[in-house]
Amino acid sequence: xxLITKAVKGTLDVLPADSHKNQFVEKTVLEIANxxxxxxIRTPVFEHTELFTRSVGDTTDVVQKEMYTFEDxxxxxxxxxxxGTAGAARAFLEHGLTNExxxxxxxxxxxxxxxxxxxxxRLREFHQFGVECYGTASPAADAxxxxxxxxxxxxxxxxxxxxxxNSIGCPKCRKEYHAALKAYFESRKGELCGTCLDRLDxxxxxILDCKSPVCHEIAADAPIILDFLCDECKEHFEKVxxxxxxxxxxxxxxxxxxxxxxxxxxxxxxxxxxxxxxQSAVCAGxxxxxxxxxxxxxxxxxxGFGMGIERxxxxxxxxxxxxxxxxKCEIYIANIGEEASLKAASMATELRQSGMFAEFxxxxxxxxxxMKYADKxxxxxxxxIGEDDIKANIAKVKNMQTGEITELAIDDFADTFMELSLQxxxxxxxxxVSNSEAIDLSKFLGGIM
Length: 449
Ligand code: ATP
Ligand code: MG
Known about the structure:
It is a single chain. This protein is an alpha+beta fold. It is built from 16 helices and 16 strands. It has helices at residues 19-35, 49-57, 61-66, 85-94, 139-155, 171-186, 194-202, 213-220, 231-246, 291-294, 309-318, 338-353, 367-376, 387-392, 413-434, 441-448, and strands spanning 39-40, 46-48, 68-71, 77-80, 104-113, 125-134, 161-167, 252-253, 265-273, 281-287, 302-308, 331-335, 358-360, 381-385, 394-399, 405-409. Strand 9 (265-273) and strand 10 form a beta hairpin. Helix 5 packs parallel to helix 9 and helix 12 (338-353) crosses helix 15 (413-434). The mean pLDDT is 93. The structure holds adenosine-5'-triphosphate and magnesium ion.
């Protein structure tokens, strides 16, 4: 029978053989964020469309071309979130977190949906790790948010990644900049793409973010925002740089970064890599002091970033960084006959209740086939239970790596096996330490994760 349909274009399945990598990365990034005081927030996959048109901005590519918008059965316009900031900001306001101690720091891992041309590192459903920090206008917060991402890359051992920062000012200094940009692009109007012609009146800064090669080339000679910053924005930017220097975070100022979402003010930044071809941005973010007001709150300066999980995983792979292996089955209980099968079931239950990863045969296969399966799943120990073993109250446990056999009492199996398995882990650790030249920490971490 043929499969009736395949996965939707631009979506990924994460299969059991790989999911431990996603789990490890997701757990790691949330834990790192936690060390900075960011606590997880979870918001819905879909929101009312106006949340995104107002916050992301209706002149951006994301809103104009990329959103999955539909009418629900109640006639409401609903959109699958294209990014995480707007939903988190909505929840922050809706639940009165403005009344809590500031700053409020939240983190999340969310799926995002954008109708884009799928290619390596560019999907229609992807995931972002994000952090948002509400209620501080201080440049120290900009540096702190940047340092979360920096810490993630450092912890995971990623190199050849560079941080680029810029300031895109506030609405006050941007007014003058818009006028200068408009004058410049007017002079080359004939060469701009159709979308950018439209942007010329509505939001000339968007032209700087156009992906068409011709517009991109024209944009390279456009006036830069840094020459138009007001004194406050200039001072803010200088201080962000001072904090970054102080934290030992290396960066380049790139005056051409404008970011593809409208809500940004002042600091914007991107972490870029050459290891991923065209999809070079792994993390991007900035300050958005006007967003909370834009969606109906009071003035709450805020900032954050989004990091693409799939791109992060691709980057780890491209740089040959080994992640901890998946946790392996600690013991496989093979069994012969119905009585032994029932005994194996109760032994496995006790082991699992003690927190051990245990499996027994649930297929009813031959002993040979059971052992083949145990080998395939990489069980650390195996035991074979038959009627005679039950009578004698003895289970012969085999260490699959060394071949060593240990006899344990079946009626006290969970406790005694746990001891054996801990001893084994301890001697693995000892080997690891005495072999410290060739530590493969990933294997050890995988075992205890
Ligand atoms: P790009 O310039 O690559 O289109 P972007 O500016 O649209 O990125 P943001 O909206 O800032 O990206 O999202 C933050 C991060 O999310 C990006 O740096 C990237 O790692 C990831 N990301 C964005 N779009 C996609 C996508 N379609 N597929 C996979 N990851 C994505
Ligand atoms: Mg994009």
